[in-house]
Design brief:
72% helix; 122 residues
Length: 122
């Protein structure tokens, strides 16, 4: 159950992280933000990133084997990176229609999935 909860929190964390890191690139398309300066964009992104931490920190505390969770530190990091890539690909395909997902992107993601396999291998 802790493993499932950890992954769910990491998913939520990465949604906010992706919005904070890349969502502002679409602000120019929104009437409210079309003239926003860099400081405004940074503060909005920072506010979104705060929510990332509300989910990321508990996910790591719950999931880490040193706190009674099922995952080692390396396993947590690799899980987080794969989730980040999945969320990012979905985000970029939904919000950035000019971006294309090519074969080399797919191969690179497969390599990361293989990293998960090898990290979890006993």
């Amino acid at each position: 159950m802790k493993g499932f909860f950890t992954i769910a929190l990491l998913l939520l964390s990465n949604i906010f992280m992706t919005l904070a890191w890349y969502g502002h690139l679409k602000f120019k398309d929104l009437k409210w933000f079309e003239n926003a300066g860099l400081i405004t964009i940074v503060l909005i992104s920072w506010g979104l990133a705060l929510f990332e931490y509300f989910f990321q920190v508990p996910a790591n505390r719950i999931g880490y084997e040193g706190n009674g969770g099922p995952f080692s530190l390396l396993q947590l990091k690799v899980i987080q990176e794969v989730i980040t890539l999945i969320i990012f690909v979905i985000f970029s395909m939904l919000f950035f229609k000019t971006e294309t997902f090519k074969w080399n992107h797919f191969v690179g993601m497969c390599c990361l999935v293989l990293a998960v396999y090898f990290i979890f291998r006993k």
